[in-house]
Design goal:
Helix content: 25-40%
Distance between the termini: 53 Å
Radius of gyration: 24 Å
Length: about 675
């Protein structure tokens, strides 16, 4: 038995440190690294499942080719030769953008960027932009601040009040939950704003249920009260912001009575929140759900505006904490991806890639290569995605298991797990530590790392010299000037985790990364992109306020939240009791429909349907139905049979939660 420090690769807020036990060349146990300053020895079930994932007998062990609907084992030589010949043929006949690289962020390793290096050296392909997960919110904060930067986790000790707005940290950010427990004992006031009562709400001083998708209106109401009480931060507004007069016009255009009705939040609560924000430092931790609407970017911008007006920007214990992209920006991505080698480019948003495939004709999409993702399950509007992938001549998937997407492929190339390859891991969502993950065991069968696959394909396509580097050399390349700042690869190997040199309290110097250099209530970046840079009153696309006919037909809001034990769709096939659909409904829906616990129901709209067993939510906003995302089609999913592939107001986020449905007992 030997014990090693390692790291979690999953795309998650927490990016945990691991201690891994290896015996006879096999992973036998995963525990938390108690020496990690943020994760402190605690890890979640998703991380522990990586042992079962690595050792599963169901892994893809050899290259597979789909011949007349059946998968056959082939050699790596055959797979790489045939795929490379298709790359050459497509480039000659149609141009390189006839290839689509479809990806997500299932792996947080630095060397996942090597796929981009390959496609850029090939000449540039059709890429996916934006993000199903957090795209609207990141773009919103780029408009407001010039970047999306969160405070360091330990800064929470400086907070008098903490507002957890739409983030169930017990499920998605467990180490923030640990900090909340600590600071509550020290007297901090914790407020949870969320459509559903959850584990975080259990420890809060107060829980405020809100109508889904209407969070921006609550922010407007709080700002109205702050201004009425003359508690706004006049110095910040006057000297460090632009566009405040435009914000005032917005808050004057709607009454508190209207806001009460829209949000389901009382005037007394709105006034109390105004005092909380004005009597800081008040930290705001935003979740991802409320920006997954057609009005998602505007919603995050209005909450940002509330934080700014109340004087909680750039101060210890404050902040509008959404993403922390300054972490990923610490690395030299260009050195790894070689963007200058790109000769042509085209892009589809990640949400609209199916529509892009079906409508593209200059050139048409002839090949799709999928890495770090499972689009047949995770991309909205699953039936359209299936239709799109079926229309493509060649689909190549790098995978560890036969996912919904792998089952649609022409070639499946077996990919290594975190413990079978060396890399470094980080998250651009919460803390600022980079973690080292050594290679601990040999991969089974003929499984190869993604870097090996791209290197071998590059050799066959004539640009192998661009891949003539070891993994360690690639990692050092990605570290870039961090090595000049004292963060060497050798030190990272020795210490397992190192803090990156980012701002622990962003914007403390009042120097913003916007075009004006100030906080922008009216965004010059938005206007430069040809969009309306002003804040506004904005509703979800599927709501009573914007589409009454649809709301009468489908009266309930569907929320598709992250599962507790699987990172998106990654672990469903490994956990038997997750292989059925749970339909959680608010108590009013149960009463209206005459539903009881464990009733079998059909949830449906014009896009599709799913079936599952009823559970009743303890407390929530009315007219809410919740189904976990990530369920595989072979187990009755995906819930994305119901969701829309349309994009958010700023063009870079999904509208997954902007989804009305009906329900009936079977």
């Amino acid at each position: 038995m030997a014990t090693f420090k390692s790291a979690c690769p999953l795309n998650c807020w927490d990016s945990c440190g691991f201690v891994v036990e290896v015996e006879d060349g096999k992973i036998v146990k995963i525990e938390g690294d108690k020496d990690h300053p943020i994760t402190k020895g605690k890890i979640c079930g998703r991380g522990r499942m990586l042992e079962k994932r690595t050792n599963s007998p169901d892994r893809v062990l050899y290259p597979l080719k789909n011949i007349n609907g059946e998968f056959h084992k082939i050699t790596w030589e055959q797979a790489l030769t045939e795929i490379s010949e298709k790359f050459v043929d497509i480039k000659h006949k149609y141009g390189t953008t006839a290839v689509l690289h479809s990806h997500d962020y299932a792996n947080g390793g630095l060397l996942t960027k090597i796929a981009e290096r390959f496609f850029n050296c090939y000449g540039g392909v059709t890429e996916v932009i934006g993000s199903i997960c957090w795209g609207a919110g990141i773009e919103a904060q780029n408009w407001d601040f010039g970047n999306a930067c969160s405070h360091a986790p330990e800064d929470i000790y400086n907070s008098k009040n903490i507002v957890i707005w739409g983030r169930n940290v017990t499920r998605t950010n467990m180490h923030l939950f640990g900090f909340l427990q600590e600071v509550k004992k020290k007297g901090a006031n914790i407020i949870v704003i969320d459509p559903m009562y959850n584990g975080t709400a259990k420890i809060a001083n107060s829980y405020i249920p809100i109508t889904p998708g209407m969070d921006g209106f609550l922010a407007i109401g709080i700002i109205k009260e702050i201004v009425r009480l003359e508690k706004e931060d006049k110095e910040f507004i006057q000297n460090h912001s632009v566009g405040y007069s435009d914000l005032l016009k917005v808050i004057e255009s709607i009454s508190l009575e209207e806001i009460e009705e829209i949000t389901n939040v009382s005037r007394e609560t709105i006034l109390e929140l105004a005092h909380i924000y004005s009597n800081g430092p008040t930290a705001t931790y935003m979740g991802l759900g409320m920006q997954r609407y057609a009005n998602g970017g505007n919603t995050i911008r209005l909450i940002d505006a509330l934080v700014a007006v109340s004087g909680n920007i750039g101060i210890a214990g404050g902040g509008a904490n959404f993403g922390n992209t300054q972490v990923g920006q610490s690395f030299d991505s260009s050195a790894l991806t070689l963007p200058e080698r790109k000769q042509a480019s085209r892009s589809f948003t990640m949400m609209e890639q199916a529509e892009g495939i079906l409508t593209a004709n200059d050139p048409p999409v002839k090949m799709v290569v999928v890495t770090c993702g499972n689009p047949l399950t995770q991309v909205p509007n699953s039936s359209l995605v299936k239709k799109a992938f079926e229309s493509v001549d060649t689909v190549v998937v790098l995978e560890q298991f036969m996912t919904d997407t792998a089952r649609m492929a022409d070639y499946v190339l077996p990919s290594a797990t975190v413990f079978e390859e060396e890399d470094i891991y980080y998250s651009s969502m919460y803390h600022h530590f980079v973690n080292y993950g050594p290679k601990l065991v040999e991969a089974p069968g003929e499984v190869k790392s993604d870097v090996w696959v791209w290197t071998e394909l590059a050799k066959k396509l004539g640009f192998g010299e661009d891949f003539n580097y070891s993994r360690q050399e690639f990692i050092q390349m990605g570290l870039g000037d961090l090595q000049e700042k004292g963060i060497s690869f050798e030190e990272l190997q020795e210490k397992s985790h190192i803090p990156l040199p980012v701002k622990l309290v962003p914007w403390q110097d009042r120097q913003f990364a916007t075009l004006s250099g100030k906080y922008e209530f009216t965004s010059s970046l938005g206007e430069a992109k040809g969009l309306n840079g002003k804040l506004k009153l904005s509703y979800p696309r599927e709501s009573h306020y914007s589409n009454e006919v649809l709301a009468n037909k489908y009266p309930y809001t569907l929320l598709t939240i992250h599962p507790l034990r699987s990172n998106h769709s990654q672990h469903y096939h490994l956990i038997e009791n997750m292989q059925s659909i749970k339909v959680e409904i608010s108590q009013d829906v149960a009463e209206k429909q005459g539903l009881q616990v464990n009733d079998t129901v059909r949830v449906f709209n014009d896009r599709g349907e799913v079936q599952g067993k009823v559970q009743i939510l303890k407390d929530s906003s009315p007219n809410v139905i919740c189904i976990d995302e990530g369920q595989w089609h072979i187990f009755g999913g995906s819930v994305n049979n119901l969701t829309s592939h349309e994009v958010s107001d700023n063009g870079l986020g999904s509208t997954l939660y902007d989804c009305l449905v009906s329900i009936e007992k079977i």
